[in-house]
Amino acid sequence: MDMKAILIWVAIGILAGWLASIVVGGGGLIRYLITGLIGAFVGGFLFKVAGINLNLGNTFVNEIVVAAIGAVVVVLLARLIS
């Protein structure tokens, strides 16, 4: 994996985590990154299982939206469990 791919993952994670924090609350750059990265996996899995294919016109935007939705799910599940 090259440095460009890692930076793209980090950017998607931070943006997705930030969007999720707007919906469910929370804050902090590290929290955004962690919830966004975990949310990317969860969102990707959920969208694949549900057979949903987002097409918002830009791959980067699609990935951010899927990751943000996954991050919201992760935060809500964590709150439910705790």
- What's the order of the H and E elements? HHH
Give me the number of helical elements.
3
Output mean pLDDT: 89
Distance between the termini: 35 Å
Low-confidence segments, given as residue ranges, are none
Taking the sheet with the most strands, its summary is: none
Helix content percent band: over 70%
The secondary structure category is: mainly alpha
- How much of the sequence lies in strands comes to under 5%
Question: Any chance you could write out the topology, listing elements then pairs?
Answer:
Layout: H1 3-24, H2 29-50, H3 59-81
Helix pairs in contact: 1-2, 1-3, 2-3
Please give a structural write-up:
It is globular, with a radius of gyration of 12 Å. 82% of the residues lie in helices and 0% in strands. It is mainly α and 82 residues long. α1 crosses α2. It contains 3 helices and no strands. The longest helix is centred in the last third of the chain and has 23 residues.
